[in-house]
């Protein structure tokens, strides 16, 4: 089975608060990497702000160890992370969408619903891949 055969048409449409219908796509590994990098950078900035401008070596080691613990999946559990996940899902089909505009288009119910659908796509993909050799076409 080819990679495109597994991931090819995983998308869905949803009408948002502006009355427009948007197409959401399954996230790629690059998307998850970008989400994780953003979360790690935010955690690093938070810790540096708490520690101050001139951390000593032990404080730098602490910051590094704490940042290493952050994963994309930890961040996605927050509303901020879910918003990022939704943004990455939308930008493939709606290149003009801005991360800052996502919050205005969604309420808590729609964030939860859309994030659940995106998570379901990941689960479906992992079930399709189990026990199969995935090779590029």
Walk me through the structure.
The protein is mainly α and 137 residues long. Among the domains are: 28-71; 78-121, no CATH class. The chain has 7 helices and 2 strands. A two-stranded antiparallel ribbon has the order 1-2. β1 (11-15) and β2 form a beta hairpin. α2 (29-51) packs antiparallel against α3 and α2 (29-51) packs antiparallel against α5 (79-91). The longest helix has 23 residues, at 29-51. 15% of the residues are buried.
Indicate the overall shape.
Answer: elongated
| Secondary structure tally: strands | 2
Mean pLDDT: 80
The largest pleated sheet is described as: 2 strands, antiparallel
Structural class: mainly alpha
User: What is the first-to-last residue Cα distance?
Assistant: 9 Å
Please tally the helical runs, counting DSSP H or I stretches of 4 or more residues. Answer: 7
Please write out the topology.
Elements: H1 3-7, E1 11-15, E2 21-25, H2 29-51, H3 57-68, H4 72-76, H5 79-91, H6 99-105, H7 108-129
Antiparallel strand pairs: 1-2
Descriptive key words:
137 residues; mainly alpha; two-stranded antiparallel ribbon; 7 helices; 64% helix; elongated; disordered N terminus
Summarize the structure.
Helices cover 64% and strands 7% of the residues.
């Amino acid at each position: 089975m080819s990679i495109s055969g597994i991931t090819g048409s995983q998308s869905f449409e949803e009408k948002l608060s502006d009355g427009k219908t948007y197409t959401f796509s399954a996230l790629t590994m690059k998307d998850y990497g970008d989400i994780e990098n953003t979360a790690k950078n935010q955690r690093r900035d938070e810790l540096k702000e708490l520690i101050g401008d001139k951390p000593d070596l032990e404080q730098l080691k602490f910051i590094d160890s704490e940042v290493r613990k952050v994963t994309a999946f930890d961040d996605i559990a927050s509303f901020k992370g879910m918003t990022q996940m939704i943004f990455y899902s939308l930008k493939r089909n709606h290149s003009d969408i801005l991360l800052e505009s996502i919050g205005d288009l969604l309420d808590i119910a729609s964030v939860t619903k859309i994030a659940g659908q995106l998570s379901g796509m990941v689960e479906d993909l992992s079930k399709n891949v189990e026990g199969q050799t995935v090779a590029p076409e």
